[in-house]
Specification:
- By secondary structure, the chain is α+β, with helices and mostly antiparallel strands.
- Helix content is 59%, strand content 8%.
């Protein structure tokens, strides 16, 4: 858990730090609080020291936040239900694309998948929604991307 409290005059530093931490995989369940299930304590400490913002930040190592269940905290920090909905829509779209055989649509589907996958925080399964479609969508992407690569090699 990383918490911060910057004076308003240091807004740019705060936003820069927040952006870098989110790029590392942190989620934000609440303003001024960032969390991750990944072991990023050392990396975040080095970032804080490198940005020289130690007096505005606190890093706490915790296994659980009291109040909300871990899954609820994860949903709030990363909007997992929204991501899952997009994965489900991609799965549905791929079945329609496959039946039509349109290669341009398949490439467009792959591009959408890559964009969505970039937003996926890759959390442990126990923090994901029960019906998480991300893994199935990744398998579909791998299957069709590998097939395209093999076809282009052996043309």
């Amino acid at each position: 858990i990383l918490m911060y409290d910057f004076p308003e005059k240091l807004r740019k530093q705060r936003n820069k730090l927040r952006s870098k931490l989110i790029d590392l995989g942190f989620g934000s369940p609440q303003e001024s609080i960032l969390i991750t299930p990944l072991p990023l304590y050392q990396v975040s400490q080095e970032l804080i020291e490198g940005e020289e913002v130690e007096k505005f930040t606190w890093v706490v190592k915790a296994k659980r936040v009291l109040g909300l269940a871990n899954c609820a905290v994860a949903e709030k920090a990363w909007e997992l239900n929204g991501l899952n909905s997009l994965y489900l829509r991609l799965i549905e779209a791929l079945s329609k694309i496959k039946s039509g055989g349109d290669k341009d649509l398949l490439r467009q589907w792959q591009e959408y998948f890559l964009a969505l996958n970039a937003a996926d925080p890759y959390l442990p399964f126990e923090l994901l929604p029960k019906d998480w479609a991300g893994e199935e969508c990744k398998k579909m992407f791998t299957k069709f991307s590998l097939k395209d690569i093999l076809i282009s090699i052996f043309k």
